[in-house]
Write a sequence for this structure.
């Protein structure tokens, strides 16, 4: 029987690329996202390769997450790999200049959403045990501060510590946990962050070579398929053209 991947945020970017990568390997896949049209289009695309179950889901809604996971069809209940990928950055300006609602959306999606989905899937992951995976998509922003990252970066720092703490709780179950922390990657991420302003989004990637969604998908596939006795705690993955800047100094 094929293994089953459960991936959130599959309607775009890393999530869609990862669904395609695992489908090519013959995994059964539960794809989640809020945009129904995209979800069904991806299910149609991959359905000729492998069993696919599209799940329209807002990860912020704990009750909806619990219900959706409890009602998975029988062929999709035994999850082998959970990828907590759904997430977003908003309000790319100083904390003092942004809307509180945008900060709440990031917290509710990047933190609460990950907790909701993980809590609901832990019983099935633990039941299967050895070789199963929780791969949480963090970010370099969770480790390295920069202006305008405020709650977004802090939400990704949560992902790192949550992943490490989960490993402690899951020791002995065989369930593996990884914080996969990419640097800049070209997806719809920057369009969302810049409220649909494509020119502002494109300028993030102008004149450089960012990571691609397929690069991330390849890394996720690598981690998920490692021998059962290996746990990758954290991977920080950046383009060659990305490094750190100096401390900022305020001068009169
Ligand atoms: P995209 O904007 O391309 O994809 C984000 C995905 O998250 C979409 O499928 C979206 O689907 C889904 N999503 C957002 N909010 C919700 C929600 N409330 N419920 C369910 N799904 C939701 O961005 P990326 O692929 O780049 O981002 C994927 C992850 O990678 C995010 O966690 C992001 O923070 C992280 N990341 C991105 C980097 C980058 O530079 N691109 C670098 C490091 C980390 P829908 O709108 O249909 O619900
Ligand atoms: C997204 C990468 O560099 O925009 O997590 O913070 S970055």
């Amino acid at each position: 029987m094929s293994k089953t991947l459960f991936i959130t945020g599959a309607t775009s970017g890393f999530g869609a690329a990862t669904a395609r990568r695992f489908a090519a390997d013959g995994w059964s896949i539960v794809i989640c996202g809020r945009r129904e049209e995209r979800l069904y289009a991806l299910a149609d695309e991959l359905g000729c390769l492998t069993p696919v179950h599209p799940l329209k889901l807002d990860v912020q809604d704990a009750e909806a997450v619990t219900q959706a996971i409890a009602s998975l069809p029988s062929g999709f209940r035994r999850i082998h790999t959970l990828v907590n990928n759904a997430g977003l950055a908003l309000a790319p300006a100083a904390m003092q200049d942004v809307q509180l609602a945008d900060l709440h959306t990031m917290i509710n999606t990047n933190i609460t959403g990950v907790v909701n989905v993980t809590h609901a899937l832990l019983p099935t992951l633990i039941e299967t045990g050895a070789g199963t995976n929780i791969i949480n998509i963090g970010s370099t922003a969770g480790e390295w501060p920069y202006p305008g990252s405020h709650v977004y970066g802090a939400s990704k720092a949560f992902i790192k510590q949550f992943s490490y703490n989960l490993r402690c709780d899951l020791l002995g179950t065989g369930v593996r946990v990884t914080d996969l922390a990419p640097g800049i990657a070209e997806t719809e991420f920057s369009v969302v962050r810049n409220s649909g302003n494509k020119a502002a989004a494109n300028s993030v990637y102008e004149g450089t070579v960012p990571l691609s969604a397929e690069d991330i998908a390849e890394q996720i596939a690598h981690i998920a398929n490692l021998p059962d006795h290996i746990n990758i705690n954290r991977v920080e993955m950046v383009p060659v053209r990305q490094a750190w800047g100096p401390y900022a100094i305020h001068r009169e």
Q: What stands out?
A: Helices lie at 13-24, 36-47, 62-70, 100-128, 150-170, 189-193, 198-205, 213-224.
